[in-house]
Amino acid sequence: xxxxxxxxxxxxxxxxAAAPQDLALWSGTLSEHAEFIEASALxxxxxxxxxxxxxxxxxxxxxxxxxGGSAVGVRAPSGDxxxxxxxxxxxxxxxxxxxxxxxxxxxxxxxxxxxxMLKEQQKQVALGWGSHRMxxxxxxxLSRNGHFNFNSLGGVxxxxxxxxxxxxxxxxxxxxxxxxxxxxxxxQYRSLAPQSAxxxxxxxxxxxxxxxxxxxxxxGISSGDDETEAISWGRANLRSSLHxxxxxxxxxxxxxxxxxxxxxxxxxxxxxxxxTPAPKEAAK
Length: 284
Fold this sequence. Notes:
Elements: E1 26-29, H1 33-47, H2 58-66, E2 70-75, E3 81-91, E4 96-105, H3 114-128, E5 133-138, H4 143-152, E6 156-161, E7 172-178, E8 207-209, E9 212-218, H5 229-247, E10 250-257, E11 262-269
Parallel strand pairs: 4-5
Antiparallel strand pairs: 1-2, 2-3, 3-4, 5-7, 6-7, 8-9, 9-11, 10-11
């Protein structure tokens, strides 16, 4: 296993996260200009951004590393950068946190735990800077991302924001991940599955189940898929349902695949001892 042991956030190499057993991988903080150029190239290639306005600036990444932020990577045994994530310190007016803006993995290495390594690496950097919680957003149409955020990491979907990036089809769920060792108030819910069969006719709709709410979605959508009429229809239904759930005080704690076609979110009432999000105005 090829990892590093220095934990100082601003150092050349921050503490490495555990590598998957089938690959000898390195993980740590990026700090050199050439590394930031590599990271930017991977970011643009994975997200397929053609607009230069969405590209990353190497000077910005360097500034983040030196001023409370993160720029972390994972390298294959060949030395190629195959994973990258970056973030910065933030606040919602009530709590301070480390905000993870993006995490990308080379498609050829997906399924090897690279995403988990990146998040764990960011966690160590954030803790080193004194942050005890991390925030990020994801597209709720992507069930695989939802499962990773809620069931693998133990995050909580605390808020829904329509058109988060100010352009169409950028609805996002805001995830909060507590980085310290406090008990998970939603642990009892994370492995639950609905008792009744749910399928395509239920996609995007809220299914009440006592004090729980299930929201089935299309399990087959991936990042970068063309926006078909069916996807647009599903996105509009999901948007309406998520608005209603968050207005009623629910949070999302799980996303599980039920069949090859259908995944389902589980929303429950916010726990009394769970962090409370800032008012909606703070997200603007």
